[in-house]
Amino acid sequence: xxxxxxxxxxxxxxxxxxxxxxxxxxxxxxxxxxxxxxxxxxxxxxxxxxxxxxxxxxxxxxxxxxxxxxxxxxxxxxxxxxxxxxxxxxxxxxxxxxxxxxxxxxxxxxxxxxxxxxxxxxxxxxxxxxxxxxxxxxxxxxxxxxxxxxxxxxxxxxxxxxxxxxxxxxxxxxxxxxxxxxxxxxxxxxxxxxxxxxxxxxxxxxxxxxxxxxxxxxxxxxxxxxxxxxxxxxxxxxxxxxxxxxxxxxxxxxxxxxxxxxxxxxxxxxxxxxxxxxxxxxxxxxxxxxxxxxxxxxxxxxxxxxxxxxxxxxxxxxxxxxxxxxxxxxxxxxxxxxxxxxxxxxxxxxxxxxxxxxxxxxxxxxxxxxxxxxxxxxxxxxxxxxxxxxxxxxxxxxxxxxxxxxxxxxxxxxxxxxxxxxxxxxxxxxxxxxxxxxxxxxxxxxxxxxxxxxxxxxxxxxxxxxxxxxxxxxxxxxxxxxxxxxxxxxxxxxxxxxxxxxxxxxxxxxxxxxxxxxxxxxxxxxxxxxxxxxxxxxxxxxxxxxxxxxxxxxxxxxxxxxxxxxxxxxxxxxxxxxxxxxxxxxxxxxxxxxxxxxxxxxxxxxxxxxxxxxxxxxxxxxxxxxxxxxxxxxxxxxxxxxxxxxxxxxxxxxxxxxxxxxxxxxxxxxxxxxxx
Length: 676
Ligand SMILES: [Zn+2]
Known about the structure:
The protein is an alpha+beta fold. Helices cover 56% and strands 6% of the residues. The protein has helices spanning 30-49, 57-67, 69-84, 88-109, 112-123, 132-148, 154-184, 199-211, 223-232, 236-247, 259-275, 281-286, 294-325, 334-349, 353-356, 362-377, 457-474, 490-501, 507-513, 525-533, 539-558, 565-576, 592-595, 606-622, 630-641, 649-657, 664-669, and strands spanning 187-189, 217-219, 380-384, 394-400, 403-413, 423-428, 440-447. The model has no long low-confidence stretch (mean pLDDT 95).
């Protein structure tokens, strides 16, 4: 047997802040480290299940919380790297691990002795002298086991494990297919094709060519490049080609086509829900969420849909009129929308994105997000010089009153090895069980690289959004890993992130931080005023493309699984009356929120559910007359940002605000109140 310590993933991590020794880890280390982690977890779980002592909270629940320590440590590194910096070897291992990890997870939740101990504790819960957090964790364990199928017997139990294993394989394949299609398409842009594009788009197209080892300029399917191209390029022919390629991800035929994968995933999810006695997957999935039922989700979405669609239809007529005035007849198409909308924004708000960006450098906006956290929560950030997993990633130590709180990693630039979108995850979560452990949190974005990197206002909002999630992890203050940080209901988890976006819109934040990257001059006041005045511009479009996606997601999981998801998608959109020139934000074949894992399945509505709360939560600050009001910030930290999943989401929100919110603040925030 080789010594465990030969493997840097398994040896003690003795560097600064116990960070993973990124420089020493090679792809070949992962598979054996997972084997060791799995073997160790299996042995510990067998020990807990077979313990001759009477079950106690300590020898069962607390022991389970630490049983997978090694596996968690290895998985924490691997899955972050697989998402942010994949290699062929990592993708192959990910495919290999998906069924293996699923089998392990089914073994645990279907272990009869183990569930017997949890059930026994739960029956005796009032006599165990548990504190509030322990009671909550016990409840959640029991719920998690039952929802995973712990009460199933015989054939049903076997089938459940097989269904979950197949789902794990399919969801991995789904996201790898999207990544392959994104990587596989690019369009060279000749000098003449650059006409009308602002410098920052040309620079991004040059950087994209360089990254691919090509000369000149190329267009890729990265959102930070293709969206500005669609906004600025007067070349309707090129916009049409680019838009078609963007919309075709996951549906290009051949090996990476996701349409059949999506159908099989939906059928298996329905079967899984039925095995557990639910009418539909949506009913199963929504039960522990704030929304509770598909009807509640539909109710919220339709309340927003109607005014948003009315606004979008009115906008479409204006944009089509602009197109006709420009001498192009016919119907406004989806590849025209962003172009004419950008021109209208310039005309109505005198706001030119290209003129704005020099004031929104990445470094300035990082400074802004840190400064707001410092004013609200007293956090301080110090850049760390430490090797990470990619040269573009940067790290900071986060402290408060001299005390170490977290390590924060920012990995901001798009590259071919990174999946699209933006997200927050952690290499290590906060916990106090077995000694205090502080988190290592990462924000991953896909901003176009540049020298310096300049953000759009949307990019800056994404930066603040992900940092809100990071705060939920970094301020976490719980004992048990199960409820740490962002381990909350899915339709509650976007509250801290979307709430944080509001501080980007505070004039004094932009006055202080939006400075020209070269001259250091602050953003001119009139530009700032116009920027903030335009904040609800385009909300008809944004709301419609989002709500359409959320309603298709809900329809997929609400009744019988469709044999042909594309047909159902078409039917739902037609029934809604989706305006001709707007497509779903994420069409089914590349809807990774819904199909690469269960996270947002019948849960894409969560952003809007959380938005109802974030609009109302920011109003709590505004009502004090000070958006940095220390008392409100302290309450936000106490009841939400540090509390993790220690109580049900309604209870946490009510503790912060004294009541639950209505939908009006959301409609007002999107400028849709008068469109109803
Ligand atoms: Zn988010």
